Amino acid sequence: MSSVNAAPDFKKTLLSALSLRGATGPLIGLILLCLFLTIATDSFFSIRNFLNILDQITVLGIMAVGMTFVILIGGIDLAVGSVLALSMMVLGYLNVTAGMPMWGAIPLALLAAAMNGAIAGVLITEFKVPAFIATLAMMSIARGLANMITNGSQIIGFPPWFNLGAIIRYGGFLTMTVAVMLVVFVIATLFLRYRSGGRALYAVGGNPEVARLAGVNVKRTTILVYTACSALAGLAGILLAARLDSVQPSSGVAYELDAIAAVVIGGTSLSGGTGGVGGTIIGVLIIGVLRNGLNLLSVSPFVQAVVIGLVIVLAVAAETFKERSK
Amino acid sequence: MSSVNAAPDFKKTLLSALSLRGATGPLIGLILLCLFLTIATDSFFSIRNFLNILDQITVLGIMAVGMTFVILIGGIDLAVGSVLALSMMVLGYLNVTAGMPMWGAIPLALLAAAMNGAIAGVLITEFKVPAFIATLAMMSIARGLANMITNGSQIIGFPPWFNLGAIIRYGGFLTMTVAVMLVVFVIATLFLRYRSGGRALYAVGGNPEVARLAGVNVKRTTILVYTACSALAGLAGILLAARLDSVQPSSGVAYELDAIAAVVIGGTSLSGGTGGVGGTIIGVLIIGVLRNGLNLLSVSPFVQAVVIGLVIVLAVAAETFKERSK
Amino acid sequence: GEVKKIGLAVPNLQADFFNQIKLGVEGYAGKLGIEVIVVDAKNDTATQVSQVQDLMTQGIDAFIYIPAGAAAAAVPTRLARAAGIPVINVDREPDGEPGDTVIYGENIVSAYQVCDHIIKKAGGKGKMVIIHGQKGTTPEVQRFEGCKRAIDENPGVELVAQQWSQQWSPDEGFQIAQNMLQANPDVTIIFGQADGLAMGAAKAVQGAGLEDKVIVGGYDGDGAALESLVKCDTPFIVTATQSTQAMGVLAVNSAIAVGHGASVPARQIPNAVLTTCADAAKFVEKHP
Amino acid sequence: MTSRSDAPILTLQGIRKSFGMTEVLHGIDLEIHAGEVVALLGENGAGKSTVSNIISGTILPSAGKMTWQGANFAPATPREAIDAGVAMIHQELLLLPHLSIAENIFVGRYPMKGAVVDRKQMEERAHSGLERLGLEISPRRKVEGLSTANQQLIEIAKALTLNANLLILDEPTAALGGEETSLLFEQIDQLRREGVGIIYISHRLEEIKKIADRIIVMRDGSKVREFDTANLPVRTIVESMVGRPLEQMFPTLAVPRDEVVLEVDSLSAPDGSFSDVSFTVRKGEIFGIAGLVGAGRTELVRAIAGADSIKSGNILLGGAGAIPHSPKDAINNGIVLVPEDRKQHGLVLKHSIQENVAYANMDSVTKSGWVVGSLVREFARKNIEKFGVKGKGFQSANEMSGGNQQKVVIAKWLARNPRVVLLDEPTRGIDVGARSSIYEIIHALAASGVAVVVVSSDLEEILGVSNRILVMAAGLQAGILDHAEADDVSVMELATS
Ligand SMILES: Nc1ncnc2c1ncn2[C@@H]1O[C@H](COP(=O)(O)OP(=O)(O)OP(=O)(O)O)[C@@H](O)[C@H]1O
Ligand SMILES: Nc1ncnc2c1ncn2[C@@H]1O[C@H](COP(=O)(O)OP(=O)(O)OP(=O)(O)O)[C@@H](O)[C@H]1O
Ligand SMILES: [Mg+2]
Ligand SMILES: [Mg+2]
Fold first, then answer.
1. pLDDT on residue B15
2. Cβ(D273) to ligand 1 under 6 A?
3. What b-and-e string marks burial along D463-492, b requiring 16 or more CB atoms within 10 Å of the CB?
4. Within 10 A of C173 (CB to CB), how many other CB atoms are there?
5. Which of A59, B206, D108, D307 is 20 to 30 A off residue C15, Cα-Cα?
6. Within a 10 A sphere around the Cβ of D388, how many other Cβ atoms?
7. Which CATH number describes the domain made up of D8-242?
8. Looking at the complex, does the CB of residue C83 fall below 8 Å from at least one CB of chain A?
9. A167 located within any domain
10. DSSP 3-state assignment of D220?
11. Chain A: residue nearest C45 by CA?
């Protein structure tokens, strides 16, 4: 008799609730990394350093959430780094140059960012341009536009409270920017796990034709996902502007690769249909902790590049080792 | 009765012999682009400018051939830009710093490049790391290594004949570097169309499981393809070194994106199994002519970015328009 | 207080200019027994802010800050101020958030000298092109300003084309120059705003077989550029060698001085030195 | 009729296979001789495909030994098996859509002329291979866009041109109509005469008698019976397969009510795959659609389900116009489709059964838009149990045998309580035991007032279940027959008209 598996145990339920299945390898990797750094450096294991790390991953973390959606439906978005820059420049232009108050400038900057994703989505669904190419083109276009706003120069002169939001640790703990990131994490996790719209992303990523026949509007879903991903990149741009208290069109170059790496390290499959935000958070933390640790260890920048490459490979290959040893 | 061949017309045979099927859209695009530039500038339409364009596409052209193989089997290689830099630095170190003659230094530089691909191939096949991630990691590692060789600085001092090979136009026409590119084009085209090893790439890209069941050694094929792609990137690096008469570790940043764009514009599908070198050459020419033309028109770099993005999208979406109008 | 550990934030070590400053700082600090921690932002401002946070975590006593990207972020300076340590800016300083001193290479006068040199060499007339660095950056803007002054002084010189590179790199210089020579075959003077650009352009000139007609000027005095000038076998004949090592030494000395409560000038501007084939050899020997 | 020799060419001794913790083959012994056709029978999930995959080197056994022509045989890759002379046609279609038919047939073993691939020879040999199966089609054509049946024939041609000594055919006729099947049987007969050993897997028991020399029956991963002849009553075979006596296959037909539920009025497809089709289906009626392969039946039901667009014509539901513009539209109107190709269109293979069921029933597993885990599990469990699916909700779909996957697809759609159910080849690849339970479900559906449309290439099935039968020929409506007037002859006459 081909018996069927035993009752799902508690551990499984917990991991699954945090949508960490498929990301236990990276989770172990993250813990090992932290242990190593705690032993190897004096300064790693401290509240202040952890808060620094949280600060440092804000931008990547928010972009990686959007990227998780895109990769879940089997797509990819190479434009997020440029979209981040565009959103920053629109914000700077509207607020500083044109004198529009923040409550008007921020939504418009987000809108400008979201538009990029909507266009990419339409190119992908209606014109059958592969996501890689559509977003590669948008990457070039958004970067060009971001540069054209000020002819390549930076903008400074935001209202003082804007930068303070990224600096003051409310309750000695959370800056406004980190709080925004945590809110994004929570909403995205709940959405993907518990909303039928979220589940539909898995169906679309698993097999778009099956999803369509099951009544999912695959085109609309795809366009919305790219729009959301771009809007999140725009949000990341606004937080980055707050952090730097200035905006410049050369921000965010190659951030898309970090975001994709974080998502995949976190166990979301590039072929779509499996993964989740829980894993992505671990992926983001691995990258953030690694960068922080390498700096604390004063590793030469060139060696850092090699180490980061090795860790990315190890983190992803770890799943395979785990599978094999079973 | 539908006999073996329903009267193949000449045009079809020609297009197919040049493996241009699926790339007629881009071919028309290329012609339109050339027409436009001929009218819009004085200097575009001249033998000398065409020879310049050939010079300028050498590096991209050779990398794009390797990328065509990789994309044909359904993979992707993000490391080629870094591998190009690594190959250059190894060449510079061996020849200039260590004083090894070129006939020893060039093969070793190619070997160093090829190793990267072999490692990526093993990661992909044996450790099930997705190609995107494996080559992303190799991109970081190869760049780090390239930098470590000289701690970030450039190397000059190659023997004089080396640079001359990239400058002297033999028969008033071909520089050595362009000749190498043309040889690569011819060999790759013949290999893909007429060798069973080349046809196997199409099978692997179409469906690796089908290829495996039909007796193709999919793992070996994959490893060899990534190795070849890296070796070609290394070759491109050597030609670039000849052209610049110097090497520096920051060369080739983001070249992989150009190479991928050229391949896809040329009609090779990112999902694997369809396409060919003929289309890639057109894709490379489109990018080369466009860059050349934008410079001849003195377009600002920011506007260039936007135009290049638009052209990429148009070139790829053109196939869809063609399909629809049928 | 006493300066025992210096944090050095560099925008991009792949640029010889920054690499030389780093070597200057490390070499001099090494002699004084001061530890130096270097972080490389790879041209990304946000990365640099994170790195500066990590420097603070490591308890540095002074901070040498070379801002990354086109914008100079103010946040690193604020972080250092919050930690109560000296901030020495090199190359650039953030608007509205000056450090204790800023040390930067003079751009305008030196660029004027380079362009003046090549224009004179060409006989005070002819068609000229400029290959700019990354658009919008301070050196790009100032070097153009200086060069433009030299052009304006020579009515016989016509600026027929300008193009911007993204990364100041030789392959860009090559490509841009090749296309410029195509569009304007009678060009005789080229100014590349960095040595990489200039050397790439020189190769393009050789490729076009115009090495007898065209001369190229550069900027920075990179190691490889100086070596090439020594040989003097290409159209690239002049550059402005920045006193990078001196800047490094100056930065360390300023850090120590501020640490001890001494006052330093708000601006310290070592000149770049016009370097031709004739005097390049001594700079290869010892970079200023 | 058998030209069997005495020493077996292939033997299996104690072959076991486990996937993860689950053992699915428990020590299989068997022998195949040259020149005989051995039918391998068993219910869905019995392990037929798994045994075949082990013999052909597709997967590795966990334990056990094989010999081939007297020597030890342990193929680690399909290539090794092919080189030894063992070829297999897999249950699922395995073709490369972007390549030509000829390349598909010769992939991995191209005929060479010197250093280059000999395209001419390749195309000629492909052409003659297809001709033997009655497929007149240019071998240069791309496989993309060919009907399932034609693709199946190409698979068969691929195996036939391998010149193997042992050929394994895993449900080769599941997608074929009567004519293609008999051509295939001629080829099998020919091979048998040439001394090739053949393992033949099928759920169509009436075929077995025609083609097989011997029968081996598997159940739950073990070999349970061997018959030395295929000349047996079907009942005997079935009872040994399911391990219990089986009642009547088709339940008696109920009388439909008068109320018309679905009315299709001169419907045409934009690509001409069907045109001017009109029919009505009443409440409680089972409406069969028959026709030869490629007659356009699949396209017709897809169009009704909103999956493809419509050029002209009308679809009325309960008297009101209801042309669905998307599958979602159709589903909201109570029209559901169980598609022909379960792997491409029915299931997200890498997801669990319960997820798959949930995708089509989001409103049943959510509370005000929030997915409730316990509802998902409970809902899936309840619905797959109804269909006797072997497996649990959390198992991923690609771990299940083909037949069980099919049952899951049916289960997920019927769970919606639809008004109109379109079933395209509902029992393809389904074993006899399960088949009769699916017929019972179809009848129960009809009895509860649902309008049921069944498309099938299996004549016996379509005659057995339908109140009325629409026969299509080359995209056109050839006629509608009543249950009473329909038989093989009348249907085939219309289908070939
Ligand atoms: N990759 C796999 N992982 C886990 N279990 C599997 C896998 N493949 C098959 N099985 C299980 O092995 C058993 C035998 O499956 P198999 O496909 O051999 O059945 P079959 O007799 O061919 O059935 P069918 O008639 O439906 O094709 C089934 O219980 C199936 O669920
Ligand atoms: N994906 C497709 N693209 C293009 N043409 C197709 C496609 N699928 C089927 N066809 C063609 O459409 C016609 C009708 O095929 P269809 O599959 O509807 O027939 P059918 O009667 O359902 O037979 P089958 O038993 O093969 O399902 C055939 O000529 C077939 O070749
Ligand atoms: Mg089976
Ligand atoms: Mg059909």
1. 54
2. no
3. bbbbbbbbbbbbbebbebbeeeebeeeebb
4. 30
5. A59
6. 14
7. 3.40.50.300
8. no
9. yes
10. coil
11. A251
β-pair type (C126-134, D86-89): unpaired
The fraction of chain C above a pLDDT of 70, given in percent, is 99
Query: What are the structure tokens assigned to A291, written together?
Result: 């960068």
Contacts of C37 in chain A (CB under 8 A): 298
What is the domain range of residue B88? 58-253+267-276
C227 in contact with B, Cβ within 8 Å? yes
pTM for this prediction:
0.88
Check whether B86 has a pLDDT greater than 50.
yes
Residues D194, D198, D201, CA angle at the centre, nearest 5°?
A: 150
Looking at the 3D structure of chain B, how many domains does it have?
A: 1
In a domain, A10, yes or no: no
Domain ranges in chain D?
Answer: 8-242, 260-495
Is residue B6 pLDDT above 50, yes or no?
Answer: no
> C42 CB near a chain B CB, below 8 Å?
no
Distance from the A305 Cα atom to the nearest Cα atom in chain C, whole angstroms: 11
Distance from the C214 Cα atom to the nearest Cα atom in chain A, whole angstroms: 30
Residue A218 lies in a domain: yes
Q: pLDDT digit string (tens) for C181-201?
A: 888 889 999 999 999 999 999
d(C-alpha D308, C-alpha D274), whole Å: 12
Chain C adjacent subunits, 3+ CB pairs under 8 A: A, B
For C58-71, letters b (16+ CB in 10 Å) and e give: bebbbbbbbbbbbb
Question: Between β-strands D71-72 and D63-68, what pairing exists: parallel, antiparallel or unpaired?
Answer: antiparallel
Nearest CA in chain B to D83: B215
CATH fold group of domain D260-495? Rossmann fold (3.40.50)
Residues 6+ apart with CB under 8 A from A182: A174
Residue at C175: amino acid letter:
Q
Query: Which DSSP state fits D314?
Result: E
CA dist A76 and A81 (Å) reads 13
Q: Do domains D8-242 and D260-495 have the same CATH topology?
A: yes
Contacts of D485 (CB under 8 A, 6+ apart): none
Report the chain A residue with the minimal C-alpha distance to residue D372.
A194
CA D481, CA D466: separation in Å to the nearest integer? 10
B167 touches chain C (CB under 8 A): yes
Q: Which residue in D198, D208, D197 sits closest to D241, CA to CA?
A: D208
Contact between C59 and A41 (Cβ < 8 Å): no
Flag whether A102 is in a domain. yes
Contact across the interface for A212 and D350, Cβ inside 8 Å: no
pLDDT in the model for residue D129: 86
Question: Is the separation of the CB atoms in D338 and D442 below 8 Å?
Answer: no
Measured distance CA(A221)–CA(A217) in Å, rounded: 6
- Whole-angstrom distance, CA of residue B12 vs CA of residue D333: 47
Cα separation values, B300 from C166, C175, C189, D94, Å: 11, 15, 21, 51
The count of residues in chain D is: 497
Angle (CA) D166 D168 D172, round 5°: 140
Burial A20-51 (b: 16+ CB within 10 A, else e): bbbbbbbbebbeebbeebeeebebbeeeebeb
Using CA atoms, how far apart are residues D53 and D59, in angstroms rounded to an integer? 6
Query: Do D and B share at least 3 CB pairs under 8 Å?
Result: yes
Are B212 and D140 within 8 A, CB to CB? Answer: no
pLDDT digits (tens, 9 = 90+) for D119-152: 899 999 999 888 888 888 899 998 888 877 888 8
Cα angle C130, C135, C137 (rounded to 5 degrees) comes to: 110
- pLDDT tens per residue across span D425-474: 998 877 777 788 888 888 888 998 899 999 998 888 899 899 999 999 88
Q: Which of C90, C92, C62, C58 is nearest to C255 (CA)?
A: C62
The ipTM value here is 0.86
